[in-house]
Amino acid sequence: MNKFVAPSLLSANFASLSNDIEMVNNSMAGWFHIDVMDGVFVPNISFGPPVIKHIKKLASKPLDVHLMIIDPDRYFNVFKEVGADIITVHYEACKHLNRSVTSLKSMGIKAGVVLNPHTNVGLLENIIEELDLVLLMSVNPGFGGQKFIENTYQKISQLKEMIIKSNPSCLIEVDGGVDVNNAQKLYKAGADVLVAGNSVFGSENPLEAIEMLSFKSDL
Ligand code: DX5
Ligand code: ZN
After folding, report:
1. Fold of the domain built from segment(s) 4-213
2. Burial class of residue 166 in the structure, from the number of CB atoms within 10 Å of its CB (0-12 exposed, 13-18 middle, 19+ buried)
3. For a substitution probing ligand 1, which of 140, 175, 178 has the most ligand atoms within 8 Å of its CB?
4. How many alpha carbons lie under 13 Å from residue 142 in its C-beta half-sphere?
5. pTM given for the model
6. Nearest ligand to the C-alpha of residue 142?
């Protein structure tokens, strides 16, 4: 699979969401990144299934739903119903991670695990074979527009090694503080999917911003 950008709708204009969705449909982006926050696992509340249901009606690309909620298994059915194609759950928010991942896969949803910046990549050793993707947080989850944490590069390398050995088709996604200054470096380090919120929707020309953040094989 090619490397690509997943624009995060958290930074979109909610008063005219359909315009922003249409822009992403017409762009080089691969997925829509959808951030669901419960105000408990992270200190912020975003939006939930009813909004995602409307996004699904307009989106022509897969919905990558990042659940920043405790005990996320309670809501898998609901998120499937509203059209999630990929669901990522936090390592830090699941008591029985293997059960969560198995249950997502049995529902036909691509399953990923998210690691907070302080969580060691090595903790995935006994589950990596089951995963479709791993999402590395490169900021502390909860808000858009934060500064990229540099130790992410080292985590990508460590994860890449584990993936090559145990599950070569598993994707690496990076979320937080991605911009034009670090995007190509992140692809080169081994990232497959780059989430970008502020650097896309905060830009004067979001379509061009997505193009600039997309993978350039010649760089
Ligand atoms: C943060 C979210 C991110 C956020 C990224 O908790 O998981 O997806 O939207 O925003 P930027 O790209 O602005 O850091
Ligand atoms: Zn996210």
Report:
1. TIM Barrel (3.20.20)
2. middle
3. 175
4. 9
5. 0.98
6. 1
CA of 69 to the centre of ligand 1 (A): 15
CA 204 to ligand 2 centroid distance, Å:
22
Q: 12 CA to middle of ligand 2, Å?
A: 13
DSSP letter for each residue of 183-207: HHHHHHHT-SEEEESHHHHTSS-HH
Question: At 77, is the secondary structure helix, strand, or coil?
Answer: helix
Q: Which two tokens stand for residue 197?
A: 């919120």
Task: Please name the residues in contact with 79: beta carbons below 8 A apart, sequence gap of 6 or more.
Answer: 36, 49, 52, 65, 67, 87, 109
User: Which tens digit of pLDDT belongs to each residue from 119-129?
Assistant: 999 999 999 99
Number of H helices, E strands in the chain: 8, 8
Just list the catalytic residues.
35, 175
The H-or-E segment that residue 6 falls in is strand 4-7
pLDDT tens per residue across span 8-52 = 999 999 999 999 999 999 999 999 999 999 999 999 999 999 999
